[in-house]
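Hey Z.,

So I finally got round to the iron/sulfur cluster thing we talked about over coffee. Here's the setup:
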Amino acid sequence: MSLRNEPNLISLMEGTGSDILKCMHCGVCSGSCPSGRHTSLNIRRLLKKARNDAGVLSDDSLWMCTTCYNCQERCPRGIGIVDAIFEMRALAVREGIIYPEHRKVGELLLEHGHAVPIDEENMAKREALGLAPLPPTVHSFPEGLEEVKKLMASCRFDELMSEK
Ligand code: SF4
Ligand code: SF4
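And the result:
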């Protein structure tokens, strides 16, 4: 794939692009990765791909990382592995690569101020415990929700979610 604005992925990764080039492929990161035991994620290979191929942005495994930081803490070269993942994810979204599930979470955030808004079942559980049905978050403070919406509009998150 080619990037919309610039062809060089590493140059776009200001914080960690040059870090990735220090990788010596020892495999400590992938050997430490709990997610890699259960998913398609091979973090060493993903970083290698990032060095050579902007197609990494549409690689499903980019989203399999749980950001536990095991790999980053253990990397003998001190590479900001998780930071690189965050940068690649941000670039992917800027390129319009947004999975339907992620878009749904974004839409919930825009509408309710929560990625997981409270539902009837949880309201009933709260009441059974003697709590107010709604927690003291934007659920209880509509004016707070308006502030959240303003914040998201100021960083154009709302536009991002409406682009299909
Ligand atoms: S642990 Fe660090 S140096 Fe080793 S393969 Fe992973 S990123 Fe590269
Ligand atoms: S931060 Fe991500 S890539 Fe690193 S060990 Fe955890 S799940 Fe694996």
